[in-house]
Amino acid sequence: MTGGVVHFVVPAVIADAARPSGGNEYDRRLRTGLRELGVRVQEHLVTGGWPDPRSADLAALTATLAAVPDRATVLIDGLVASAAPVTVAEATTRLHVVVLVHLPLGVTDAGRRADEATLLRRVAAVVATSAWTRSWLVEQYAVPADRVTVSLPGTDPAEPATGTRSGASFLCVGAVTPVKGHDLLVDALAAVRGLSWFCTCVGSLDADPAFVTGLRARLGQLGLVDRVAFTDVLTGPALDAAYRAADLLVLPSRVETYGMVVTEALARGLPVVGFRTGGVPETLGRAADGTVPGVLVPAGDPATLAVALSTWLGDAGLRARARAAAVSRRDALPSWSETATRVATVLSRRMAA
User: Fold this and answer.
1) What is the pTM of this model?
2) C-alpha–C-alpha distance, residues 88 and 91, integer Å
3) 187 and 324, same domain (yes or no)
């Protein structure tokens, strides 16, 4: 795609390697992928505590959008757009606005739904990062289906996990927050404390310090301090090593619109046990023979998660089938170049309008 400039408005935090997230990674890789396709991308980093901006943050966003030339195409991260619906709606009168929705804010905060829905029905187009998100926007917000395009996150090739023979090395990847469900994980692990296992939790410990303190206290009460490790953020070779040493990715999230950690695990032939929430079933998928590369249980129920973990540890046949299915899924995972190509197609239609 060639032609005019695409103005990409994203939270400034995407440049902070100490605060990785699926949304931040998607934005970074999309920016790079678009440029590799020949798209002229001008990135605008907006500071602030998105999606809870202060008045100064909103003023800075207003100034950023005001500086964009009339009739230009603006791709704006939903974490910013949906947190500033009035500001972005005003910009649609002179700009072609495309909103990139990772997680609709209304999924977890009903108070935001009306304004977010109004905005997303008004913009030129919406890019959703999962089919589940697209369905949610169409059904809950009445966004016209023909204006919402799905562009799944890409996945990098990776070396297969080696793991252990017993299957007892668990890995949980994600910022330690209530949304990611580490408290539910602790409850599930407590229920299987009589079995042999060790769980490594990789993710930011700074997002909700009080929650982390409560988790550590709970682990102490349960006598599990020596069986659950919190590493904080890992990236690059250190994160690769954590995946390589694991037997199973455990996903206790209360909400996941896609779950990029799931595809990171599958890229390494690593099965997943977790909650059936949002887009996770879509992301986990099935092997060519129909086998699910793991086990999903009803969301928010640590008792059923505990049963799944117990079954995993006690059933070598299940572990072998799930591993084979995970390996089979590796070749079917989307690439980041595919992600960028789909978004570039949406942007080209806007630029031609």
Assistant:
1) 0.93
2) 5
3) yes
